[in-house]
User: What shape does this take?
Amino acid sequence: MSFENLNLHPLILKAVIDSGYTIPTPVQAQAIPELIAGHDIMASAQTGTGKTAAFMLPALHRLATPSQVHSRGPRVLVLTPTRELALQVSEAAAKYGKHLPRAKVVSILGGMPYPLQNKLLSQPVDILVATPGRLIDHIQRGRIDFSRLEMLVLDEADRMLDMGFIDDVERIASATPANRQTLLFSATLDSAIDKVAARLLKSPKRIQIATQQARLDNIEQRLHYVDDMSHKNRLLDHLLRDMALKQAIVFTATKRDADMLADNLAAQGHEAAALHGDMNQRDRTRTLTRLRHGGLRVLVATDVAARGIDVVGITHVINFDLPKFAEDYVHRIGRTGRAGASGIAVSFASGKDGVNLKKIERFTGQRIASHVVPGLEPRFKPRPVTGGTSRTTPSVAHKRNRTWSNDSGRHATGANSANGNWGDSRSRSFSDNRENTRGNAGGNTFRNSGVPSPYIRSK
Ligand code: AMP
Assistant: This one.
């Protein structure tokens, strides 16, 4: 299957070729013909699968033919859960529609000034990309004319459901013409999504794209057990010194943690900045632009803010805190390995994360191999070190020590090389106690680092 076989308008095909795409991704190959034929669709496809072009190319194809209705309102409406995703969809629309004479794209996002949005909405619009809350405001104020709306796209519908936007989405849908074409994209198609689809779509074609597992194939997942905050910080510092790390997104549990960690990293000389929902849109856009242009090496972010970020240079995702929901894990690590590249996803897990970790592994169907960094071994280690599951991550420190290790004849390979490099009482207690990590090994962590260990307290 090639793009030429999809019967897209020649000016759209030209833009696709300009983008460097040669063959349609599976979701594009399946969705585009159904959409051009006028069907509603519900598709299980996540970011990274090429889903944006899967709906945007047929949307633009519609715009290539003038509307029969006399109005200045949008002909295509895309609803997204986050501002970042909305901006990415808008960029994609502009990119694929650049050769068309009538493909004016407007984004209406929360956190942006109303006067500018009012002005944009008073002019002719072809494609409107919006987050639901702000769009409802404008609808209530009578600022949007949906009389010529032909296509409604619900992007990341599962997320809109999770974030409590679905009532707003349904209200918006009810303000649009009943004969519209409706598209729903979601990471998973479960019963909650089915209910939404039953209310908003007409006899939709179901499109099921690659399982989670297939999608994660190009991402190497690693796990580091951590004893405490100081251990996390030292491991992070170590990871960020790796020259193979070009750009990274570090995920924290809260906005406050994101700010604090970004400040600490910046103070240590890293090109780091935070991205979270409490920042105003201008700062968020500025930070993302820096990331995109390579002016930022480390982005410290929360789940919602980072959703949908599509920056090809992201080589690493680091879960400084594990996410609460397994789905978020998949979304997070999908920020790396973009557009066919490979990526590395590193997760820190402490004693409290056991249940979460299991949920994530069940969801992805993949066990995450645990790694140790020489000199930064955890005292806490719930999984026994068995061949193949625990690995020593090649490290900057390790490379620096190589001469020393080789000279001393203590350099070992495989899971034991960490201990081989150190060979002191710390490594012995780690390896001796690996089945019983809350015993002496934990006590050593406490004494060696001078930081209170939560595992001692919980004993
Ligand atoms: P999405 O799933 O829409 O977030 O797209 C993921 C990435 O794939 C984006 O960087 C797109 O530019 C890229 N992309 C989309 N379609 C294709 C294609 N057919 N061939 C190569 N790259 C593509």
The CA atoms of residues 372 and 392 lie 5 Å apart. The longest helix spans residues 83-96. The chain has a mean pLDDT of 81. DSSP finds 21 helices and 15 strands in the chain.
